[in-house]
Write a structure and sequence with these properties.
about 250 residues, globular, alpha/beta, binds 1,3-dihydroxyacetonephosphate, TIM Barrel, about 40% helix
Length: about 250
Amino acid sequence: MRKKILAANWKMNLLRDEAFHLYKEIATFSDSKEIFIFSPSLYLSELSSIDGPKIGAQNFHFEKFGAFTGEISLDQIASCGANSVLIGHSERRQIFNENNEVLKLKVDAAIEKDFDIIFCCGEPLEIRKSQNHVEYVIEQLKESLFHLDVLQLKNVSIAYEPIWAIGTGLTATAEQAEEMHLEIRNSISHVYNVEVADSISILYGGSCNEKNALELFSCPNVDGGLIGGASLKASSFKEITNALYGLH
Ligand code: 13P
């Protein structure tokens, strides 16, 4: 059975006290569930001192240490009590010019440190319009992820986040999500094998909220969600959690 996973990507939101309170509220319903909170890194240390869901960093540098002003390393993140990272988020790709090559270095660095990875992929609108979305997304995975061996891949979950759906209120339909998730799973099956493909959790992200979560999570190949805006309020994140874990 694949793990159901729900991840909150808080992005560059919430002040320290707000993050602290939201985390505590989420902790009241996260017990025995696979929930990750990708908080601003500044707060990781404090959050790790509270009993609650797993915490992770939204970004890091692939080098171990050194003269990289403003960057943080995986060892530093681990020293703050977090062992999970997001890699390949479209905002990192688009705004900070992280390409598939750089993302591969990040994947290797995180694997070496035995971090859990949520690897994000997804196509921009023009690629979707030109009907090349499947090839585009599979190429992202091939260039940054599929060099891992079977054992290394056990640390990885994949998040499909169509860029045109992120923060736009425009969600992929359940059919669109299922189509891509199935294609991703088939590509894992081709590169590795069916057992590996069946074991990897593939999350959907992009305007997933309390209203559409149940429909998206009902798709056979959607194993959870990576939630942005709707993870910033405990009430909506709780409803999304209930949708995933069948508590509605
Ligand atoms: P929204 O849920 O705000 O669309 O953001 C999705 C996302 O980018 C999560 O990583």
